[in-house]
Specification:
Helices cover about 50% and strands about 20% of the residues. The chain is α+β, with helices and mostly antiparallel strands. The longest helix has about 30 residues. The protein is elongated and about 55 Å long.
Length: about 230
């Protein structure tokens, strides 16, 4: 199972009850534990979750073999947990906070890059991606792709227009290596919400769906080969 799918499944409802944590909380937990072991109370505070929800989160991660728990040191990552983190961070690059005042005066911004995300943008469409980020709690989103050494804004169909924000392009290129076919997504947020949360949740949802679609396509090809 792909890591994005795993993170989504860990947040699924059980016995009809959906947990309060999301893939964002799962990823943040694994990132915290990659630094050092944490106790439940400390994780609860850092994640902004109640102790009961944090306890459930820890239990699910433990059952899945991503973490273990020491009575003194607290929760810590297993080798499997580190592999999940490595896979996720190879797919989703957390660029960090960006200045979006030119787009929304009273907004904060957060940026991620989805490696080889061009296919996802083409398949889902810019409007669907923006709507997904907004449903997760953002005010809006900016979506661009990196193709042939240029930042492009997808418009209708396969058409694109040049992304002309030189300040933002320079900032991105100074922070991370951007590769051919990468997708750049920036969430615009108002209020007290952690601006990375809607973006990370949306990205994991898109990757999980894409991985599942790819797996189904591969299975259909295998069945077709068997039957011919």
């Amino acid at each position: 199972m792909k890591s994005a799918q795993l993170l989504s499944i860990l947040c699924s409802a059980k016995r009809g009850v959906k947990p309060k944590f999301t893939p964002y909380h799962i990823l943040k937990t694994l990132l915290y534990l990659a630094e050092r072991p944490h106790g439940r109370i400390e994780l609860s505070r850092k994640l902004g979750l109640g102790e009961a929800s944090t306890r459930t989160l820890i239990q699910r991660l433990k059952v899945e073999g991503l973490i273990n728990v020491d009575k003194i040191a607290g929760a810590f990552l297993t080798d499997k947990g580190r592999k999940v983190i490595d896979e996720m961070l190879n797919k989703i690059i957390l660029v960090g906070s960006v200045n979006v005042k030119d787009y929304c005066e009273d907004c904060r911004g957060y940026c991620i890059i989805i490696r080889r995300g061009l296919t996802i943008v083409r398949n889902r469409g810019v409007l669907a991606i923006r709507d997904l980020v907004v449903r997760e709690g953002a005010y809006g989103a900016i979506i661009a792709i990196f193709k042939e050494g240029r930042f492009l804004l997808p418009v209708a169909g396969n058409a694109h227009e040049e992304f002309r924000d030189e300040r933002l392009k320079k900032f991105l290129l100074s922070r991370v290596t951007i590769m051919e076919g990468d997708a750049v997504i920036i969430s615009l947020c108002k209020g007290e919400i952690d601006c990375s949360m809607p973006l990370i949740n949306a990205a994991i949802h898109m990757l999980s769906t894409y991985d599942n679609d790819s797996l189904n396509t591969e299975r259909r090809r295998e069945l077709k080969a068997i039957n011919t």
